[in-house]
Amino acid sequence: MIDTRRLRTLRAVADHGTVTAAAAALHLTPSAVSQQLGALEHEVGHRLFTRDARGVRLTAVGQIMLTHANEVLAQLERAEAEVAAYSTGAAGEVTVACFATAISAVLSPAITALRTGSPGLRVRVLDAEGDHSLTMLLDDRADLAIAVEYRGAPDAADPRLHRSALYAEPFDLVLPQDHPLAGSGGPPPADAVRLGDLAGETWIGPYPGNPVHDVITFACEQAGFSPNFAHCSDDFRAVVALVGAGAGVALVPRLALRDMVLPGVAVPGVAVRRTPGPERRVFAAVRRGAQAHPLLRPLLDTLHTISDSLGAG
Hints:
Elements: H1 4-16, H2 19-26, H3 30-44, E1 49-52, E2 55-58, H4 60-86, E3 92-98, H5 100-117, E4 121-127, H6 132-138, E5 144-148, E6 161-176, E7 202-205, H7 211-222, E8 228-232, H8 236-244, E9 250-253, H9 254-258, E10 270-287, H10 296-308
Parallel strand pairs: 3-4, 3-5, 7-8
Antiparallel strand pairs: 1-2, 5-10, 6-9, 6-10
Helix pairs in contact: 1-2, 1-3, 1-4, 2-3, 5-10
């Protein structure tokens, strides 16, 4: 009989690539993880991993076991959801990992709405960048992740996750107010600025590894150049403030600008212009099999209702 705890350990090692990283995610010691892997290999009768200087890699049998592990763990999530539904699931806590703009745009309004519709549901929020939230979900540190599409993100067919689109928002170009392409200031003019016209500019944006950095870089590459990021911050308020100081130009998601709530322009000294192309696509994800859980279902439904009303574009 294969111990399901060892299947979770197998998946954690496959996700993280090293025993040490998997141990940290599982709150175990590396030796305990190694013992569980050894016991699983004994149960299966085959080597599941090979080790090299960079970490561990699944063998062919390991890949087979990982496929079945994903199915078994998803079925366990479904079983828990059905049991919870049988027990009414009227009260409990859900932990959500979510990035700052989506906390403001959809998660906080959802929490407000749920006070009336599901008063027994408590939502615990963990602020996490759009890529980190998925890791927290897969490591069981969160029950739901609100994440951003990025290169390398798990796709809709990933056997570990059930995901659904929430909203897509365009990026706006933020320029110093005295920039030649800034126009007259105030509300963004109807005509858009082409990204290719900014090839020689100094850029301000998130750090490499942040999904938004990937989106901006890809959009600029599509326009024929690589952006020169001289200043980096994952805080969009800081990015816009640096633009206002004349330190460079930036692409900022529209809802992040809307959160700054200043009429006409984002901050004094800044002009906002439309530009064609990049979008930030946001989705919700839970572990596969958990989507019908009676605590997750009302939260997911409310997030979709609020997302539909955003008018982010």
